[in-house]
Each structure stands twice: as C-alpha cells, then as structure tokens.
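Example complex used in Figure S2.
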Amino acid sequence: MVPEQKLKTFLELIKNSTSQELIWMNGYLSGVLSQGKESQAPAQVKNGINKITIVYGTETGNSKRLATSFAATAKKVGINAKVVSMDQYRVTDLSKEEYFFSIVSTHGEGDPPASAKKFYDHIHQNGFQLGKLKYGVLALGDTSYPLFCKIGEDVDEQLKKLGGSRIVPLQKCDVDFEDDANAWINNALHILQNNGTVVTAPPVVAKKATGRKTFSGKILSNINLNDFGSGKETRHIEIAVEDVDYLPGDSIGVIPENPGAAVEAIISLAEITKEQTVIYKNEPQSIYDLLLQKLNIIYLPERVVKKYAEIVQQDIPATRIDLVDLLKIYPVKDAHHFVDVVTALEPIAPRLYSIASSPEAHSDELHITVAKNNFRVHDELKYGLTSDFLVKLKEEAPLNFYVHPNSQFRLPEEDTDIIMIGPGTGIAPFRSFIAHRDATGASGKNWLFFGEQHFTTDFLYQTEIQNWLETGVLTKVNVAFSRDQPQKVYVQHKMLREGRILYEWIESGACVYVCGTKDPMSIDVENTLLQIIGEHGNRSAEEALQYLDQMKEDGKYMKDVY
Amino acid sequence: MSDKNSLSAVEKIKQESNGLRGTIVESLENEITGAISEEDQALIKFHGMYQQDDRDRREERSEKKLERLFSFMIRLRLAGGFLTPEQWIATHEIAGENSTGIIKITTRQTVQLHGIIKSKIKPTIQAFNEAKLHSIATCGDINRNVLCTSNPIQSPIHAQIFHFADRISKLLMPKTRAYYEIWLGEEKIADRKEEADPLYNDNYLPRKFKIGVVIPPNNDIDVLANDIGLIAIIENNELKGFNIAIGGGLSTTHGNEETYARLATVIGFTDTEEKILKAVYEIVTIQRDYGNRSDRKLARLKYTLDKYGEDWFRTELENRTGFKLEEPRPYTFTSRKDFYGWVQSHDGLWHYTMFIENGRVMDDEKLAMKTALLEVARTGKAHFRFTCNQNLILTDIKQEDKNTIEVILHRFNIIGHTETASVIRRNAMACTALNTCPLALAEAQRYLPSLLTLIEPLLARHGLSDEDIILRMTGCPNGCARPYAAEIGFVGTVLGRYNLHLGGDNEGTRLNKIYKENLDEAAILSELDMLFEVYKNERDHGEKFGDFALRKSWVSAPAGFLFRG
Ligand code: SRM
Ligand SMILES: Cc1cc2nc3c(=O)[nH]c(=O)nc-3n(C[C@H](O)[C@H](O)[C@H](O)COP(=O)(O)OP(=O)(O)OC[C@H]3O[C@@H](n4cnc5c(N)ncnc54)[C@H](O)[C@@H]3O)c2cc1C
Ligand SMILES: Cc1cc2nc3c(=O)[nH]c(=O)nc-3n(C[C@H](O)[C@H](O)[C@H](O)COP(=O)(O)O)c2cc1C
Ligand code: SF4
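Predicted assembly (1127 residues):
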C-alpha cells in the first residue's frame, strides 16, 4: 500500500535511526493517529507514563552524569523526568512517588556516597510502606573493590522490602559503565513505553571489568617533605608518564602488592606449592600470584573471617585479622580447604591519591603527595600497605596506576575566585589547582588554608607556596600549626579569624574546596563555614544550612575527603 | 661629609625606619616564613639580634621544598661583662627553652644565644627583661657593648673603672622606645619628639662603634682593637685619668686593597670623669658627621681618622669639647691574658677563672659545665664575669664561701678541665663561624679544638708546650676573634683553608701579617712544625714567638700599626 519510493525512504530512515529515535517515532506516529491530525512533537506516548523521578547518589559525578542523560532522553520521548541528588531529595516524598529510578555508586569500604547517606539510612528504617512505588536501580561500582555495587544492591532490595515493585531489573556497572548503563536506560524507557508493565528478567550480572585503563609510570623522584624531628613522613612523588589524560581534581588509583614475606609464610603454612593454581574469575591462575597481587590477605574483614570459619569448621570470634594469623591459630585441614579459602578471599582494594600536578604545568609528569600511614596493633608499630609501598619506591621503579576522574572536584571558570582548605595531604589537589591557574594565567583570586603539626618540619611545599604568594598567583595564605603552641590551632580556627573576608569572598561568588581527612577535619571545617555564614550573613543555623546546601547545588562547595 | 646621592642602602633603611621600628611587627606576624623582611633584618640588629639560618641544613631543606632553617641570635648588653647569679640562672633557663641551649661567651665579654625561632623572640626578650637584662644596641651602627678589664685583681680600684665603663655605655644609648614597644608591649609613644635623639638623630652612625676600657699592664681586652680605647692611668691606687686611643678596627676584606686592620692610636690624655665622657661623646659625633656613609667597607672610625689625619681630628675634637687634650701619659702592656684558677683581690675576695673553649658553655659527654655553673649560681655566692678571651670568672667570692664553690667545681671537674688544658689551648680563640654565621667562609670554633689537638704534640716535640703563644682563628677576614692581633693567626679563605699570619706581638700592640696563604691542615701542620723547630733552636732567651717571627723576617716588618688585607 506504500509506494516503492516512500517505502525505501521509510526503511532507510528506520535503518539509520537509533533505538531511542525509533521509540520516539513510534510514539509520535501513534500520537498522530490518535488525534486524527498532525500534532506538535514531541507528542505524548499513548497510555505511556509521562512523569518520572530520577535520584542519584554520587561522589565523583558519574551517577549524576548518567541521571541527567537518562532525563534528557526521557524528555525526547515526551517523558517528563525530575532529576534530584539524593541529598536534595525530600525523603518524605517517597510515599507519593510512582515511577522512581535510583542511580547510585558505592564508596569507602562499601559505603554510600556522602550525598546518598541520608536517603540510604532513611529507606533502611522500617515502619513505612511504599505501596505504589514502581522502581529501578542502576548501580555504579568497581569490581576491584570487595563489595561490588553494594549500595545499589541494598537500595534495590530495600525498596522491594518496603513494598515497591521492581519494574526494571538492577544493573550493576563496573568502571566501564557506559554501555551497561545506556542499555539499562533504554530498557527502562522501553518498559515505560509499555505502561511500565513489570518484566521479570533476572538481574544482569556485571561482566568482567575490562574498561579500566591502567598506566605504567616510572618514578622520577621520591622525597620526604618533612624535615627530621617531624612525627610525619609525607612523600612528594614525581612519576614520569606518557599520554595520561587527567584534570586537576582527579586522583590516581594504586593497587598495592602484598608483602612477599607474608605470602611465603601463607604458602608454607598451607603446605602447598607456589606453582599450584586455582580458577579465579573463570581462569586458572597461580595461587602465589593471586596472593601476592590480587587478593587481600591483610586485616581481613569479619565477613571473610566468617567464611574462613565455615571452611575450617571451627568457631572463630568475629574480628579482623591477617590471613597468616588465621592459618597459624586455625590451620586448614588440607590443600583443598586452602583452595576454598583462596576463593573466599576478596580482591585487594585500590587506594586513591589525589594528583598534585597539572598537565598544563608538568607535562609528561604526574605528582602525588603520600602520607606514610602508621598505626599500632597491640603496641607494635605497623605501616599502611600502600603508602608504605609508595614511600619505599626508588627512582626508576615502575608504578602501575589508573586515573580516577572526579567531575565533582573541578576548577571553576578561570575568573572565579577560589578558597582552598587543605591541611595535611589535603594540599595535594590544590598544588595542582594553583600550578594549573599559574600556567594558564587564570584571573580568579586564590586563597589557601593549610595546616600541619609544626611550622619548621611540616610545612608541605613551603617554598612553592611562598613563590606563588610573591608572584601573586596566591592572593592569600593562612596556615595553622597545631602543635607549635600550648593550645591546638587548626585551619578552622584560622578560617574563623578571617571569617568576615571569607564570607565576602563567598558572597561575591568564590568556590570553596575542602580536601583531606574526612573525620574530624572536614566536619569541623564545614561547621565553621556554617558558623561564618551565620555570623557574617546574620542567618539562623537553619538558614546557614540552606545557604551551604545552595552552594553545594550550585557547585560552589566541593569536598574531596577521605 | 659623604655624598647624599650615593648613600648606602642601610642609610636609607635607618632613616625611613621610624625610630628603628620599620615593619618589624608585620614581619613577626607573617606566618608563611620564619624570616623577616630585608629592611627589618638591618633594623633588628639595633635591637641586639641577627637573623641567621643553619647553614648545615640549606641543601637538604631546599630539596624538601622547605625554606632555610631561619633563626635569630641575640646578644646581651653587659657593660664590662657582669652577671649576678640570678641573672645567670635566668639566662640558663631561657637558653634551654628558646635557643640551642648553648650559652656563647663572646670575644667582647658578653653572651649570645643562637637558634631562637621567630615566634620565640618576644618570649626570650621578655624573660631577659624579667631578669633586668636587655640587648639594646649590641649590634648595628651604634655604640656596642663597652669593654672593661675583667679581673678585679688587676687593680684595687677595678670597681671604679668598671662603673666608668657602665657610664659610657649608658651615655651612648639610643633614645628610641622601639625596643620597649615591639618586644615588651610598651604603649606607643604619641609624638616622636619624645624620643628625639641629639646624638644619633635618625641615621645613627655610619658603622658599628666599639669602646673598651683597660687597666694596664694586662691588655686582656685588646683595647687597641676598639674605635675608642681608654687606657687607665693609675698612680698609687688612684685613677689619674685616661689616655685616649682612637681608630682601632681589625676587619679586612679579601682582595679589597682599601681595607685594613688597624690598631688604635693614642691621641692624648685627659683627667676628670666629666671631661672623659665629653671627649668620648664628641669623638662619636665626629665619626657620625664625617664617617663614610656610602661605602660600608670604609665606614669605620679608622678610615675617617686616616682620611682627615690625626691632627685635624684632635683639633676638631678640642673644638667640640672646648678643652685641650694633654700629652699621653706613659703606660706599658706586659701581657694579654686571663688569670686562670683562684686569685684573691685586695679586698680579700676570691675569683676563679675557668677555661671555656671558644666560650661555648654547654653540657657534653666529657664535661657538664652548664650544670656545674647552674649549681654555682644557685648558691648565690658568686658573681659571673666574662673575659674578652671567651672565658668566665666566678667572682667576688667571700673567704667563707670559697670552699662551697670549690667543691662544686671539683665535683664537675671544672678545675681539672681548666688546669689540664694546654697553654696554647687556653690562650686560643676562635670565632663562631659555621654553622650560624652567614659570612663564614670556613670553620672556626667547630674546627680549632681538633686542630689544636694536632698542634700540641708539635709543641711538645720541640719542648715548647709551656710557651705562652697566642693563637687565634676566624672563619673569614672580619676578624671577630682578633686573629690579626695574634702571634699565630688563622683567617679562613674557603672551607678547609686558611691564611697563616705571623709576627703579631704577645701584648696586642703589634699586628701580624700574612705568612702563607690558603693552607690546608697538612700544610698548616708542616709549616708550624718547621717554624717551631727554628724558634726552639734560634730564639733569644725569653724571646716571644711573635717577636722572633719578625726578627726572622718570616713576615716583613709591619707598616707601622697597619695590616693590609
Ligand atoms: C660572637 C662574635 C665572635 C665570637 O666568637 O665571640 C662575633 C660574631 C659575629 N660578628 Fe664580629 N663578632 C664578635 C667580635 C668581633 C670583633 C672583635 C672585637 O670587637 O674585639 C671584631 C673585630 C674588631 C672590629 O670590629 O674591627 C668583629 C668584627 C666583625 C665584622 C667586621 C666589622 C668591620 O669593621 O668590617 C663583622 C661584619 C660586619 O660588621 O659587616 C662582624 C659580624 C659578625 C656577625 C654578627 C656576622 C653577621 O654580621 O651576620 C657574627 C655572628 C656569628 C654568630 O653566629 O655568632 N664582626 N667582630 C663576637 C661578638 C662580640 C660582641 O659580643 O659584640
Ligand atoms: C579520594 C581519595 C583521595 C586520597 N588522596 C590521598 C592523598 O593525596 N595522599 C594520601 O596520603 N592519601 C590519600 N588518600 C588515602 C589513601 O587512599 C589511603 O587510604 C592511605 O594511603 C592508607 O592506605 P594504606 O594502604 O597505606 O593503609 P591500609 O593498609 O589501607 O591501612 C589503613 C588503616 O587500616 C587499619 N589497618 C590496616 N591494617 C591493619 C592491621 N593489620 N591491623 C589493624 N589495623 C589495620 C589502620 O587503621 C590503618 O591506618 C586518599 C583517599 C581517597 C579516598
Ligand atoms: C574511595 C573509593 C572507594 C570505592 N569503593 C567501592 C566499593 O566498595 N565498591 C564498589 O563497587 N565500587 C567502589 N568504588 C568505585 C566507584 O563506585 C566507581 O568509581 C563509581 O563509578 C563512582 O561513581 P560516582 O562518580 O557517581 O560516585 C570506590 C571508589 C572510590 C573513589
Ligand atoms: S670572623 Fe667572620 S666567620 Fe667568624 S664570626 Fe666573624 S663574621 Fe663570622
């Protein structure tokens, strides 16, 4: 009934259209037919759902990006999508929601992103039902962490428990999330097209991580920035790299090797040979290599200890302990048992280090600032696995790493003023920021707050900071050295002293950045910011809070804390 | 007077300093650096401090992206070098809390503390103030600490002379209140007229100015190395007056032909205290008005004197004082030494002079000297006097207390230490040099002790161990340990190398001259070995090493009192 020519163009059109375009055309045509005459695009889908909510929980911006592109494509097909960050979302609205999609990542050791905490905790309280909620969850994660997409899983289950009906199966994405995520989005839109009829497909299991681009650099120099007499050891490490793309604000991830001695000890305790292999991620691999490079054998989490207990059939108190010690106290019966143990082990989690260099200022180099992590286990002094490994790296040594982008911690427009609060290793990304603004001649003013224990021994990058002050790249610098006087003085005290000016900067549009330890530093700093906003903008505590929330939303208050 | 257009940088800084205040307060508040601004570095000297940095740590710190390890040295104002036991205890405690802990006795009879970081300066000065001690004008272009013969046994009227040194010191103090405002929180003066300074005005002197008062025949203070040297003329225990010597100054600059060391020239005698003070005051005003303010290397009084001539100077002085100077009275110097061990003065009091190598009072594995002195001070039974040979005299000890002190000195082996030190070592001096002195070209106080350990056997080999030879070393040609006024002088040129000077006399009335240049340790030792041998074999009876060196023309006869560097 369609003439040759028309049919040809029609088929060609279909051939060159993406699935979303087809969905749209489909909807459009049905719209045309239903009204018997042409209507304005975008038309609404016949019986289709036209209102959805998308919430995202993000730390480094990926979930947010996906949420917005989800909303954009939805709009194209006439579905009106409201996009909210989980910390901006009014949890009391949940009960009113009908079509509700969550995109959330996992951070820390299987923790929700800071911005998702409130939401996550809320849905974990019982005592309310979400009868009419129809939902879908997209989980972002990284298979190289033990608890892959834990938070996404939890949210997916919890919403079910609360009486919601899952209309789109949970999708867990690894670091190469683009394809999986788009597939999930299209699937979701498709289902919405069909009035959200629940499809009961099994959750898609994430495929093996392939997407991570790992680089291999060479150590150029590795110097201790602290002078002797200091209680700290902070390394400035310069790495020679080739075509590594990164931006100020990004971090690198490093997967440390386990100490060879510990591995040897394990092998001998388990009475197996180095050559022995197991199937890991569906490939045969030598146990020795796995223990050395892939599997975490130190300070095992309780859940792993529990599995171990089951394997060796002994009751072991719920505690964190090294594998070696487990093997000593609760030996395995035989090699088979040990193989089970190996498969119960979790991957070594990557450790992140903020990049302290700028591609503009340090081409073909990447710098990091590493604090040697130390702690006591019944008064034996021990060192953090990765930082100790990095501290020991000699010149010329190779170092494998990947870049972890952080779109939530970026420099603003070149003419926007910035306030950087970075005590300790928190200085690292700001060294990158300042070097970058120096190299690009950015016109915005730059204000740095730095703190450490002692002026004489611990003033990280002192001479660089002094030069930046002289050349005017840095407009203001305030330092706090906690232990140079009887009473402790920290960055927040210096901020308070500068409160008025600080508020003026913020009022005239400055961005505030915080980097360094999460607890207590970033908390104290945030409270101080609130206090300053309250005092100098004479606002109530409540209003100050809103003011800061607004700054977050406008991307004017950014944290990268750990 | 010097040409205004070419005033040296320091002149400008002084003038614009608003009474030596400059921006010191701002500099102290700057948290980003342990240093103070360059201008303030020049001004803070007038407050008795120098900015320094640990030169041993420079490279390492810059690797670590840390600035130099800045700290400050403070020098006390102690006319005649006198401390009460309470003041010694205070100094001991301040040193422990705010500085390196070492109390350094200087070649000008006072003490210095090193390594005081910026934030500790105020507490330090305040603590000193509690103990009625201060550091005003111990450095800078102004009259410095006034020296006075140290040991009371040198004259029954020592007290009178000592008091006189104090009078001069007070007479020439600056009037600015800056020190009290900045360091002691005194109320800011409303109107600078209140601190108007007829002597120093707003530009002070062209250069540092030094005065010393000596009681012959012992020239322990090296009186002729001072801009003004006052030589007490005493006849049967009565002070007749003073010979006035002017134009002493030892510093030279390597390769600068215009600079030279010079001993002071006696230009006359005057009697009453009033006239002496007047003369001293006007000598200072002449230097103020005629001294070179464009080239700091040629700004000391010695150059002013040689430029205008002795006669002109005397006339100008007589015009300003309104009285004539009399002919110099005869005097002689027979020695230049400290009286180690116990001595009893005419008033029956006892005095113990102890040997302190290069003036560094500290505790080390061998000797707990600092603790010993603290114990002595705690008895409250001895005063502390410093000598210009960097030693210490425990003075004014009553007969009945002598034993108490002696017991402590024995217990800590201070007496053993003093008595067993070789003669050459006890006569020797070295300046501070590395690691704190910014001008040092070579080591001095950290090196001389070990060099002496190698020289002692040479002397022994030639049977000269008991010879009273004066040997001195500095790390640069500035001459802080007065090496040009020694029989054997070492002046550092670069790390590990020294010019060897010979021909100075034992009493400090004749300068030495360069014998060999840039010697390293091996060369120094073989030269000395040879020289000692000749000296041993060819000296006249009782002939001093310095005089022998000259007679042998190891160095050509000095051009009068001059030594050209
Ligand atoms: C501490 C002392 C040497 C010691 O080991 O005892 C000393 C140490 C320094 N002298 Fe001196 N001078 C010391 C007695 C002398 C003497 C000896 C004397 O006065 O009897 C001289 C030679 C006599 C003279 O003044 O000509 C002396 C001539 C200098 C000079 C050269 C002055 C000149 O006319 O050119 C300088 C450099 C300068 O002033 O530019 C200097 C500068 C310095 C400085 C402050 C370096 C500086 O300018 O930054 C040294 C500090 C080093 C440190 O860390 O202690 N010092 N200085 C003596 C402190 C005396 C006091 O208590 O005031
Ligand atoms: C976004 C981000 C940026 C970061 N940027 C930086 C940076 O710029 N510079 C920097 O130095 N760090 C940075 N970090 C922290 C860094 O990633 C590591 O967490 C840190 O170096 C510690 O890792 P580690 O392997 O050395 O210590 P780990 O071995 O992981 O030990 C860490 C802690 O675990 C406990 N522990 C470990 N083993 C045992 C045991 N056997 N018994 C008892 N307790 C034990 C101890 O409390 C120890 O302190 C950043 C972190 C994040 C998330
Ligand atoms: C410090 C840190 C810890 C992480 N921990 C986990 C984890 O425990 N489990 C996991 O699946 N992914 C983990 N990841 C990977 C992130 O979830 C992954 O990078 C995700 O893409 C980030 O999304 P976002 O930018 O929206 O936060 C972690 C990432 C970082 C930086
Ligand atoms: S002589 Fe030279 S090196 Fe020695 S203290 Fe004086 S200025 Fe420093």
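The pocket of flavin mononucleotide (ligand 3) is lined by residues A 58-63, 105-110, 113, 140-142, 145, 147-150, 175, 352, 404 (CB under 6 Å). The two ends of chain B are 26 Å apart (CA to CA).
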